[in-house]
Amino acid sequence: MTQSTHTDRHTPRRIALLGASGSIGRSALNVIEHSGGCLVPSVLTVHRQTQVLLELAHRYHPKTVVVSDPNADCSCLRELPCGTELLVGAAALEEVATGDDIDVVLSAIVGSAGLCSTRAALEANKTVALANKESLVVAGELLTSLVQAGHGRIIPVDSEHSAIYQCLHARRLTPESGKPWQCPVACCPEVERLILTASGGPFRGWAPDRLQGVTVADALAHPTWSMGKKITIDSATMVNKALELIEAHWLFGVSGDKLSVVIHPQSIIHSMVEFIDGAIVAQLSPPDMQLPIQFALYDSERHRGPSQRMDWHRLCQLEFAMPGPGEYPALALGYDVVARGGSCGVVFNTANEVAVNAFLHGQLPFDRIVPACEHALSIHPYDPCPDFHRLGELELWTRLEIQKWIS
Ligand code: NAD
Ligand code: MG
Questions:
Q1: Ligand 2 centroid distance, CA of 225 (Å)
Q2: Rounded Cα distance, 357 and 393, in Å
């Protein structure tokens, strides 16, 4: 008799896909489509792209769809397939993320708007496949405390964190399915450091004065990844890597001195784990988010899927470089937030969200995004252990402060 595992290969896993119209959402739907019925899209949510939602509903026949913006025009959704229920408003995200008939919540909303549903899913003991890194940046301490107290599980989807998770998994250092979370690295004396790779973005090697004239189109032209607008700008400023340092700190329970960033322009090695004997284990694959999404949705099982394969004929070389001192001011902010903790995460994340939005609307030059974050961090009323209510107040405070600073 074979031992049964948490994931029975024949029982469909019912997915609540929060952020279905986005870049991660679309990749996830492609993974689901290739799963031969093993993965079922029970819930699809969008913020206000109702026409896209209608098309997705006819294609995937979810049980429930959500439009989270209460002011969105939902008139086209009169044509939803019969059997699909429509919910409207932000509170519906929490309702669907906690449903009894959901096995995995894929948290793929962009920005801190993803926090409430991520929190609700964990409180309801769900497995959360987490793409929404901002929720850990804002509330890493509170969310990981929930998990450590036995509420739900987090499986990383961000490619770097998935790569580290896969490297640890290969060494059986990740918690088994259904077991309470233990920070695998914090508890593992074998691990020396985690090495996050970064492509360096479209402006790698540019002198600071050249960054003044960067346009939105320049910043949206990422050399290796195709992603949503906000994360593409974050990659161009390197704030994305700073957010990922903070995300790794919370996910794996490591301090900043055990986290390194290496520039790797080809985005083939997604991250690495260095062990105390000097061995380094890496995860390689073409830059395609379908692989980390699939690994999370299948709860760390290996299955065939739609992800791109390595073409060893085309690959010519893998390059690596250490970021030069002062080359990427955003990275220093990331390490600073990891070291100081408390309210720094919410302030950094909010300042960045406001500044990126202003840049996308032509109200702030590209090279002022990181200074906006520095400004907010330097003047904010530091709180060493904010609760969820206080995080909301600090988010509002930062939003107003940065809007004032910009204007
Ligand atoms: P995207 O902009 O393409 O999609 C965002 C999704 O969130 C859409 O479905 C949108 O309708 C929804 N949304 C937007 N605002 C919302 C709000 N206020 N309330 C509820 N829903 C809202 O973004 P993306 O690139 O798919 O990124 C999603 C998340 O995944 C981000 O946190 C990002 O950092 C992370 N991530 C993305 C990638 C990638 O390759 N795209 C890689 C790693 C991590
Ligand atoms: Mg990433």
A1: 10
A2: 20
